[in-house]
Design goal:
With about 375 residues, the chain is of the alpha+beta class. The chain has one domain: Catalase HpII,  Chain A, domain 1 (Beta Barrel), CATH 2.40.180. Helix content is about 30%, strand content about 20%. It has eight helices and nine strands. A hairpin with a 2-residue loop joins strand 6 and strand 7. It starts with 18 loop residues before the first helix and ends in a 14-residue tail after the last helix.
Length: about 375
């Protein structure tokens, strides 16, 4: 039998003494990326996950008859919510798709109820931020700062050099995957497989409060027309926006469907809250489905959708309810840094960022 899920309590988190200083330095380093990209592009983008590949209107349905340990927070009551998904890749600069880096999905669930997290009191949505790998590349905010400083130095470098490096690192990743296993660092640097994003499984990587418990979140494609794309390589030669084009073809030609699953923390020693580089053992703590997300055929990406979502909305783990409070060092750092990036975009682009009233996106 699996162990019972642990009870959430604030003492599960152990902030470092110098965490406030680390977060301040993260914001200064993000400014380097934000300002360079805005100068190059004449437009402000997110400090991470700048380039979107699909902007999808969807419907999330909480399953009926969930057991008590899963019927928590916004999943306590069965029913449907409008939702928006933003599919992206992780650099803060807008790169040619031949530079292959990890994919991400930001999920915004609309019209949720519950006491709000600090800074999101006027909103009515719940965000989950996910990437196509089970662990984060850094243990905590201090380790992430070291990585970010390296990434900031490569921002604004010639894309031809990044393309060459990405080609070489994809070869390294193939060898590692076949032997010791994939390296999140190599993939972040440009060695990720150029896979179709609709075939991938996405992970929150970091834990959230889950009502009375603690959980990580997973998004899994379930339609054959999506999972069959697992062996599909996005061909980028002469196609700087190849991912957008391939996703648009797939999304326009039929529906999409995912399952949203949660992995309850059952042993905080083996499933740590503060170390985001540790994958929680799925045998001891299996992922369990709590909702399905469905999208009707639609355009995958258009300039009008980019203005509405990329410019007009923010996605943050700290946009949501107290029942899904983000936990751990990486998430505590995200609270200020995500807001910092959002405020920069709004100021430079002259476009207010707001919580959407509906999931209806322009064509």
């Amino acid at each position: 039998m699996t162990q019972a899920p642990i009870a959430y309590h604030p003492g599960l988190e152990t902030p470092a003494d110098d965490e406030a200083d680390t977060i301040a330095e993260l914001n200064r380093t993000f400014d380097t990326i934000l300002e360079r990209v805005a100068d190059d592009e004449g437009h402000a983008y997110r400090a991470v996950h700048a380039k979107s590949h699909a902007l999808i209107e969807a419907r999330l349905t909480v399953l009926d008859d969930l057991p008590p340990e899963l019927a928590q927070g916004i999943f306590a009551r069965p029913g449907a919510h409008d939702a928006i998904l933003r599919v992206s890749t992780n650099p803060g600069d807008v790169l040619d798709d031949s530079v292959s880096v990890p994919r991400g999905v930001s999920l915004k669930v609309l019209d949720v109820q519950g006491d709000r997290l600090e800074g999101s009191e006027t909103d009515r949505s719940q965000d989950f931020i996910m990437v196509d790998g089970p662990v984060f590349t850094a243990k905590d905010a201090a380790a992430f700062l070291k990585n970010l400083k390296l990434l900031a130095k490569t921002t604004d470098r010639a894309q031809w050099a990044k393309k060459l490096l990405s080609t070489a690192l994809r070869g390294v990743d193939k060898v590692l995957t076949a032997t010791t296993g994939p390296s999140p660092t190599i993939r972040t640097m440009g060695g990720a497989p150029n896979s179709h994003p609709l075939a991938l499984t996405y992970y929150s990587q970091t834990p959230y409060r889950y009502g009375n418990h603690v959980a990580k979140v997973q998004l899994v494609p379930v339609l054959p027309r999506m999972t069959e794309l697992a062996d599909h390589t996005v061909h980028t030669r002469g196609r700087p926006d190849a991912i957008r084009e391939d996703m648009d073809d797939t999304l326009q030609s039929g529906p999409a469907r995912w399952e949203l699953r949660v992995q309850l923390c059952r042993d905080p020693e083996r499933q740590p809250i503060e170390d985001s580089t540790v994958a929680w053992d799925e045998d001891a703590a299996p992922f369990q489905t709590v909702a399905v997300i469905e999208a009707a055929p639609q355009p995958g990406w258009t300039p009008a959708r980019a203005r509405a979502v990329d410019d007009g909305m923010r996605f943050s783990p700290w946009n949501g309810t107290q029942d899904h409070r983000p936990l751990g060092s990486i998430n505590r750092a995200r609270r200020q840094t995500y807001r910092h990036s959002s405020d920069f975009r709004a100021r430079v682009n002259g476009c207010p960022v707001h919580d959407p009233a509906s999931a209806r996106l322009p064509a």
